[in-house]
Amino acid sequence: xxxxxxxxxxxARQRSRLREGRGFPLGATWTGLGVNFALFSAHATKVxxxxxxDSGQHERERIELPEFTDEVWxxxxxxxxxxxxxxxxxxxxxxxxxxxxxxxxxxxxxxxxKSIVGQIDWNPAVFGYTMESxxxxxxxxxxxxxxxxxxxxxxxxxxxxxxxxxxxxxxRTLVYETHVRGYTKQHPAVPEKxxxxxxxxxDPAVLDHLHAIGVTAVELLPIHTFVNDSYLIEKELTNFxxxxxxSFFSPARRYASVPDFxxxxxxxxxxxxxxxxxxxxxxxxxxxxxxGNQLGPTLSFKxxxxxSYYRLLPDQPRYYINDTGTGNTLxxxxxxxxxxxxxxxxxxVQEMHVDGFRFDLGTILGREPYGFDEGGxxxxxxxxxxxxxxxxxxxxxxxxxPGGYQVGRFPPGWAEWNDRYRDNVRAYWKGDGxxxxxxxxxxxxxxxxxxxRGRKPWASVNFVTAHDGFTLNDLVSYNDKHNAAxxxxxxxxxxxNRSWNCGAEGPTEDQAITALREKQKRNFLATxxxxxxxxxxxxxxxxxxxxxxxxxxxxxDNAISWVDWDHxxxxxxxxxxxxxxxxxRRTYPVLRQSRFLSAAFNEQLGVKDSSWLAPSGEEMKPxxxxxxxxxxxxxxxxxxxxMSGVRKRGSEATLLLMANAHHEEVAFTLPSVPGxxxxxxxxxxxxxxxxxxxxxxxxxAYGLAGRSLALLLLKxxxxxx
Length: 721
Description:
The protein has 15 helices and 35 strands. It is of the alpha+beta class. Among the domains are: 1-157 and 298-322, Immunoglobulins (Immunoglobulin-like), CATH 2.60.40; 590-716, Golgi alpha-mannosidase II (Immunoglobulin-like). The strands form ten sheets. Strands 12-13-16-19-22-23-24-25 form an eight-stranded parallel β-barrel. Helix 9 (419-430) packs across helix 10 and helix 13 packs parallel to helix 14 (569-587). The longest helix is centred in the last third of the chain and has 20 residues, at 511-530. The protein is elongated.
């Protein structure tokens, strides 16, 4: 079909003064003397700017942008001001078979809009084709304006005071993954009107709790404006996680106590977190948009320039490449799309003062038409960009496309979610055979994955749980997922969770099972905080939050996903335990080194940075590592070893970390170490409230209980006077 459709409705009479304006910057920019409007579309034939009254309901004016420069349509309105509500209608060919889906009957959002007002009403008119027909080659003439949101011009001015980036070193970073709404929705100390909002997150009670458990950075699930999917609404569910972005520059109004000022409330939140010494990292979704595939709605990019914004099948551009599993994939190989993403990232750093990003399905960002390339355009642009290269960049290093699993393959400067760590640590503490050797590798920074091109152990973002999957409590309480509330007959979500219910499925009054579950939680948490790399803690795991066995709560905006702050004695004890773990990690640098451990003898310094020990106190032999029944070992972290690239003896404390995933107690012979006289216990997951203190002599047998972990400190020899 080759058709150019004009709007039947006559445009409102132009009243505003109009000048040529500039093609840069893109978006609606308040200059102090008016507003410059600039929109990229390489294949459009005409672009109309639609202005609305203060309610956003009534179009008061329609203006054809007068200039087309370097594929950018632009114009300047001296009479426009912050608060102006606007959107676009874009004319061009409607040729789906050629990748073009222009339809000026559809009101479109500016990809660079800083504020979005209104919401989507899933009326058939929001689709560019006649939705009822199911045929995307048809052309729909209905006006979508009554059913879609608009954009609002903002004044970016904000008094930041002396706010500055914290630049917390990676080695000192403890990431805390949470959700703006879910975290405080049930918090009793947060004023009710502020619960579930940006302002709610900054309540002193919330910040005090984060300090108590050692958090240095919060990682927020998506806060960009996103869409509630129609099929979820039909099932009376909600897109809770937010991985369905519609606008990459605007914060979601749903998370603001005053929705019209979401952008300023977010700035205030960031400033308050910084004042508390906590960085803010955003989970961002630049891999796809809410417009779906050829049968999806026309809301923004699809109607502005479909062939540029999306990856289309080369031989059938009617259809979308779906490396994301969501219907479409952004085309970051196109220079203007790449520009939009990097402009967006810089905006959030420079204007919103955020400290970093976690990239959902990050492999997409490095994917070129020929496949993943660690030297791809986006990854290279981040490395050389003076703004983006200075913040924390974390990739989820997989997608659904061919060759999508790329853990360890991102370039220098990037950190990556390490699912190998998650899976192996779960398997080890579950008691699976043959998991011990890999557990040792994960414990020491996953050098097999990340020790290349000068990358450091911090590149491995270690996690046992995340938003996607079981919570820590549910990991030790359920063998199977329980996702019936999602309305998909429990078919959704992962089935390979490597979980263990410890003897009963779900809640139990059996005290022995409860005690074992609590110890397993401590084992997982201690492993996470004592591992080399960057630890990431899922919000609520520090006090045993449950999702009732749901391991895919993406659509549950209710008590399943909301954090429960009604803590019992077990929860309070676990909070104290996590705080102690974080304190130990801060206190002892050997737990967070900037060099990969080699276990090689340094002849010049006469010391090894680490030694792997069997329960006998002797060094592990190859056959012991290969034994599928082996589940017990220790690692000696020698504080005398070289701690940086400077070849000199270290002066840090020496620690002994012992792990026993067997169900029975194992007697560990405590090794002797030059310069020490004895060991003292810092922590033991079997005795969480016992700080130890008593000296443990060399050669003594330490009874490490079944399914437990202990950390010992070397006591220095007494100096003779």
